[in-house]
Structures are given as structure tokens and as C-alpha cells.
TrEMBL record, chains A, B:
<dbReference type="GO" id="GO:0019298">
    <property type="term" value="P:coenzyme B biosynthetic process"/>
</dbReference>
<keyword id="KW-0460">Magnesium</keyword>
<dbReference type="GO" id="GO:0006099">
    <property type="term" value="P:tricarboxylic acid cycle"/>
</dbReference>
<dbReference type="GO" id="GO:0006102">
    <property type="term" value="P:isocitrate metabolic process"/>
</dbReference>
<dbReference type="InterPro" id="IPR019818">
    <property type="entry name" value="IsoCit/isopropylmalate_DH_CS"/>
</dbReference>
<dbReference type="GO" id="GO:0004449">
    <property type="term" value="F:isocitrate dehydrogenase (NAD+) activity"/>
</dbReference>
<dbReference type="InterPro" id="IPR024084">
    <property type="entry name" value="IsoPropMal-DH-like_dom"/>
</dbReference>
<dbReference type="GO" id="GO:0009098">
    <property type="term" value="P:L-leucine biosynthetic process"/>
</dbReference>
<dbReference type="GO" id="GO:0000287">
    <property type="term" value="F:magnesium ion binding"/>
</dbReference>
<protein>
    <submittedName>
        <fullName>NAD-dependent isocitrate dehydrogenase</fullName>
    </submittedName>
</protein>
<keyword id="KW-0479">Metal-binding</keyword>
<keyword id="KW-0560">Oxidoreductase</keyword>
<comment type="similarity">
    <text>Belongs to the isocitrate and isopropylmalate dehydrogenases family.</text>
</comment>
<feature type="domain" description="Isopropylmalate dehydrogenase-like">
    <location>
        <begin position="3"/>
        <end position="324"/>
    </location>
</feature>
<dbReference type="GO" id="GO:0051287">
    <property type="term" value="F:NAD binding"/>
</dbReference>
<dbReference type="Pfam" id="PF00180">
    <property type="entry name" value="Iso_dh"/>
</dbReference>
<dbReference type="InterPro" id="IPR011828">
    <property type="entry name" value="LEU3_arc"/>
</dbReference>
């Protein structure tokens, strides 16, 4: 039995998580789910957005499925705490066109690898007399680690090119370190093509020539922005999964939030959560099941009938999950 | 006679500047051009990318037209120095669809107001033992100043809504200051609608519902990224002008760079430079001429014949400039 942690969270997080466990159940894998709390409701019950038991548990299991949480203003973010506590330093965000989706581009398939441990997420901010200052920390260690991760990922998945994204013309020192680390590590991968662009140019190329991208690697906040832009390219956040990977654990979450506006209606699109589940299975070396799950999701989208309202259908979250199970 | 500084710069900067002065000449305005140097060639001649005389001159004239410069690695950026020296704290970047342009959206007309004096452009970066750290400085003074500028701009141009873009869920202190300043100043503008989004969500909304935007106001680097994304929405950098505005001077520049790859061929698209020139005329209170110039550019684009190769035509930079003059 492989133990995994399940953190449904708040709002539609819980609803899409039910869809995920339904589909996982139907795969009849040897998985043992252990539920844990985090987020807004958890804060109301326990006074913490991310209790110690939850963190301890995630450290004991090799994978965590995370739904979505509602922010509690002034309190620490559950997901950012988990990324830090488990040192989940690589955030993988695929940008892939699926059939049957109303999107700007139909032929995209690239992956953004976001450094997930430092940069402007270092939590080093202070008020000053005039306002406030945040520190953007870029280390050689983290830059080389994420570059190596990106090159290894490209190699393993048969991709050809890795593009580093930075703003070294303005952030000459911090992004200088990032860029130099990228090319230094890149020397160990002679078969992969390397290039680098400024983040502003990249934000434009996503629209004018997105087909040139294969694997991108970038610092934390640039990755945050570009991956949401990437989501917009292929139909919006309802479809975008992500993997947060460390040396010991992986945490898998849809990029969308808890969506309080549609909470309780049972109509949340489960695709991002199901694709995140597929990424988890791949991480757990159940490649065959991971691929079958992704194919089943793709088939349901292509068919376009049993889908949630945001995709033009009349079906519920669980209807769609059952349809995916049927297609597997 | 109104004196203006002309800085052609490098590469196609010089070519599109010739187009701009040609069109300005044909308007027969009372303008006196004073030429000044900056950029790569200037560095080779004088040892400085932005000589003191150039800065002094721009301080004496009320407006500067700036072409584009090639970066000299390791030396200060001419444009960033000018923004700082003249305290050009507001960068106005329109995102507008023009007829005849092959673009993702045909109906966009919004404006990004980018804070141009601080944030990650403060130049406060240091190497550390582990790598480097950059300081993102956000002050109440600059945040209120740019918010006021954005609200005033909205009022003056008959727009209805101002959207603040930030990342206050992660940069709680710095972007907390920015967001609070926005709403505080906003109270003085009861007739304008206000809203705020996270920068990542905004990068997605640009693609999924760009029509909701009217005036956006944001910090320096977010404005840099979003305005290039905005350029991508309406056909690319060849069309995007910008205005850098301070309390005493204005500097007007195309968002594109010096494009060494097409330098000397005479085929650079002059539209971004000509639209920047129109923004300058508006700033100099020559509203009538500014509008006529913009209409003429629009007509030439709509007609789609006498245009440069990037727009599908066979004409040169100067051919296109002459056609614009003819249409005025
Ligand atoms: C919720 C927020 C803290 C988070 C981030 O900024 O990383 C989210 O936008 C994401 O992309 O996972
Ligand atoms: C050239 C560069 C320093 C500049 C910036 O980052 O501001 C450019 O990208 C811009 O948008 O004007």
C-alpha cells in the first residue's frame, strides 16, 4: 500500500477532490488515502491555516493531493508553507491544448518549470518609514538545482529545448546569477538546445509565437505570472494541473483556487484536479495508469458532452468524474 | 518655438526617428529639434551610454523623442537613467487594436499605467555569498502619486474604471502599501469604478476576458511584463508606443528595441514611433494634430497597402512615413 495525503481544503477544493478519489478508486490501485486539513475552514476550527499534524503527515507520505484553499488575510498561506516545509523546489506547470476546448491556440504543448523556493517568495519583507521593502533572493544553489531539474525533465520526457526566462538587463545581479547557473548546468546536457529570453519578451512571445517553446525554466514569481498566462492560452485555469516536486515528496494541485462563487453547486470543472492526479500517478511510477487517466480525460473533453457548464455542458463535477472513470 | 530633444539611438531607432521627423515636418508645427546621443554607438564614441550633455538637454526641453538603444552589457541603460534623472514616474502604454492588423483581438482599447521610478528598478542589488539579493522598494509616496496619475488620466480621457494590479497575497507588505495607496487615493474619485486583481490572474484575464479592462495601474516590473503581453494581444511590439511622464518633462518612445537583425535594411515598422510622436503632441497640448496623426496612421494600416514587410507589405519605413504624411 502506498500512503498518500489528501488535503481537500475549501470551497470547490473539496468537490474536485471527491472527483479525484472517485476516479482513483475506479483504477483499483494500491493506495491508502489519509485525509488532512488546511485552509480557511481549518483555520476556523483550529486557529491555524496549516496545522503541524498536516505538515507532519505530508512529510511521512510520498505524495499529497491538494484541492484548493481560501486565503485567510494576515495568516500564512497553506500552500506556500507546504512548499517551504517539504522543500518542494520545482513547480511543473504544463501548457497543453486539449481537444474540444475553446482556446486561443490548438497546438500547444510546453511545460513551465518554476523555481518554487526563493525569489520574491522568500518571505523577507519589512515596513520602512516610507513604505516597505521586499527582498528577492536568488542563490546559485537553487538556480542550479532548478536548472538541473528542468534539463533532466526535458531529457526524460524527450523534449529538445530548455529556455531560461529572466530579467537580467535590469536585475543584473540576481538574474545574472540565475542565467549563469542555467548555462553552467546546461553544459552537462550537450544534446539539449538552450536559449534565454527576457520575461517581458516571453510574455509577448507566448502570444505571437508560443509554438517555439518546449521547456521553460524561470524564477518563482515570473513562473507564477507566466503559468497563468499559459493557462489563458489553452482555455483557462479550470484545466491546468501542477506538480510541486522536492527530493522526497511531491504535492499535486490544480492551479485554480477555491472559487467561493460556485462553491456548493457541484458544477466545478474537475479536469485540473484530475490532470494533477495523473501527474501524481506518474510521479509514483504508475506511468501506465497515469497515461490512461490523461487519455480518458482527453476523450471526455473531445467528446464534449458530459462536461461541466464552464465547458458548455450541463453536467456536474461528479458526472464528469464518472464519465472519465468509464472511459479509462 | 517649442524645443524638443531628439535621441535616435541605435539600429532601427535611427530609422524610425527619420520617419517621425519626416511626419512632424509635414505637420508644419513650431518645433525646434535638438539632437542628442545615447546608447551603444554613443558609448563607443564617448565612453558613456548616456552622456551628461544629453541628460542636461532633456531637462531643458519639455519633451524628448527617443528611438531605441542597443544595450551595452555592464553599463547603465540609457532609458532607465533618463527615467530616473527626469523623474518620469508614469509610463503610459496603450493596448489598442488597429484595423488591418493580424491580431488575436480586434476590439481592445485599454491603457496600462506603469509606475516607473521604483519597485525592482530601484537599482538596489548586492551579491551575497550564496548568490544575490535585489530590493523591491515600494513607497506610499510613489504609490499614491501613480494612483493619482492613473485616476486623473482616466477622468481626463473619459474612461470609467481603474484596476490596480499587484501580488499582495505574497508580497503582503510592499504590495499591501501599493494596494492601500490605490484605494486611499481612489476615494477622491467617487465617479470612477475601482477594482484590483493579482498579477497572475491579470496575465490570464488578458487572454480570457481582456474586454473588461479600461485603465490599469501597477508597479514597475509587473507593468513591464503586462505591457509586453498587451502588445502581443494586439499584434506585437512594432505597434506599441509609450509615454514616460514626469512633473516637468515627457519622453516618448516605441516599446520595441533597436532590432539589430533588420538594421540598415530600411524596413523597420515606424508605427510605434509615430504613435509615440502622437502621444508627444498630445502632451504638448497639440491635441488636434495628435489626433490627426493617429487617424492617418490608422488609415494607412486599415488600407494595408503601403506598409512594411512585418505587416505584409513591400514598402520601406520612409515610404510608410510618407504615406502617413499624405493621409494627414
Ligand atoms: C495562491 C498563491 C499564493 C499561489 C502563488 O502565488 O504561488 C498561486 O498563485 C499559484 O500559482 O500557485
Ligand atoms: C530595455 C528595458 C530596460 C526596458 C524596461 O525593462 O523597462 C524595456 O523592457 C521597456 O519596457 O521599456
Amino acid at each position: 500500500m502506498i500512503k498518500i495525503t489528501i488535503i481537500p481544503g475549501d470551497g470547490i477544493g473539496k468537490e474536485v477532490m471527491n472527483a479525484a478519489t472517485h476516479v482513483l478508486d475506479s483504477l483499483e490501485l494500491n493506495l491508502d488515502y489519509i485525509y488532512a486539513s488546511a485552509g480557511y475552514e481549518c483555520f476556523q476550527k483550529t486557529g491555524s491555516t496549516i496545522p503541524d499534524e498536516t505538515i507532519k503527515l505530508t512529510k511521512k507520505t510520498s505524495a499529497t493531493l491538494f484541492g484548493a484553499v481560501t486565503t485567510v488575510p494576515g495568516h500564512k498561506s497553506a500552500i506556500i508553507s507546504l512548499r517551504k516545509e517539504l522543500d518542494l523546489y520545482a513547480n511543473i506547470r504544463p501548457v497543453k491544448s486539449y481537444p474540444g476546448i475553446n482556446s486561443l491556440f490548438k497546438d500547444l504543448d510546453f511545460v513551465i518549470i518554476r523555481e518554487n523556493s526563493e525569489g520574491l517568495y522568500s518571505g523577507l519583507e519589512d515596513y520602512t518609514r516610507e513604505g516597505a521593502v521586499a527582498r528577492r533572493v536568488i542563490t546559485r544553489r537553487a538556480s542550479e538545482r532548478i536548472s538541473r531539474f528542468a534539463f533532466d525533465y526535458a531529457k526524460k520526457t524527450g523534449r529538445k529545448k530548455v529556455t531560461a526566462v529572466h530579467k537580467a538587463n535590469v536585475l543584473k545581479k540576481t538574474d545574472g546569477v540565475f542565467k549563469d547557473s542555467f548555462y553552467k548546468v546546461g553544459e552537462e546536457y550537450p544534446d539539449l538546445e538552450k536559449e534565454d529570453f527576457y520575461v517581458d519578451a516571453t510574455a509577448m512571445y507566448f502570444l505571437t509565437k508560443p509554438q517555439i517553446f518546449d521547456v521553460l525554466v524561470t524564477t518563482n514569481l515570473f513562473g507564477d505570472i507566466l503559468s497563468d498566462e499559459g493557462a489563458g492560452l489553452v482555455g483557462g485555469l479550470g484545466l491546468i494541473p501542477s506538480a510541486n516536486i522536492g527530493d522526497k515528496q511531491g504535492l499535486f494541485e490544480p492551479v485554480h483556487g477555491s472559487a467561493p462563487d460556485i462553491e456548493g453547486k457541484g458544477i466545478a470543472n474537475p479536469v485540473a484536479m484530475l490532470l494533477s492526479t495523473s501527474m501524481m500517478l506518474k510521479y509514483l511510477k504508475m506511468e501506465y495508469e497515469a497515461e490512461n487517466l490523461e487519455k480518458a480525460i482527453s476523450a471526455v473533453l473531445k467528446n464534449g458532452k458530459v462536461v461541466t457548464p464552464d465547458l458548455g455542458g450541463n453536467y456536474s463535477t461528479m458526472d464528469m468524474a464518472r464519465e472519465v472513470s468509464k472511459q479509462i
